[in-house]
Design a protein that fits this description.
single chain, 109 residues, mainly alpha, 0% strand
Length: 109
């Protein structure tokens, strides 16, 4: 074996590890969607302005958009990069969720 073949990394990764990683993070993102829907249901009967409704709908749609975007961006990357991008996206979703909760609790002003 030459030194060149010993130092190259096999570009193929085990598919089951990738799918398990995507499944675990998919459940975390799905929990964010579920939490946003559960938060919005009691607010349906209240008189809310349009900005609050947009924020609530974005809180439901954003985890799905971020998950799909993270998977698309890391399609040809290693498992570590996929995990880090999904974790960073989950952090962005969590910060946005806290902003939405703070906005709705403050009365939308």
């Amino acid at each position: 074996m030459s030194a060149e073949t010993m130092t190259t990394v096999d570009p193929r990764r085990p598919r089951w590890i990738l799918y398990t990683l995507l499944g675990v993070f998919g459940l975390l993102y799905a929990y964010a969607v579920w939490n946003a829907v559960a938060y919005m249901i009691p607010l349906v009967g209240m008189a809310l302005d349009a900005t609050t409704w947009v924020a609530l709908v974005l809180a439901i749609a954003m985890p799905v958009i971020v998950f799909v975007l993270a998977v698309a961006l890391t399609r040809r990357r290693g498992l570590g990069a996929v995990a880090l991008v999904l974790l960073a996206g989950l952090g962005v979703v969590a910060v946005f969720w806290l902003d939405v909760v703070g906005y709705t609790l403050s009365g939308g002003h």
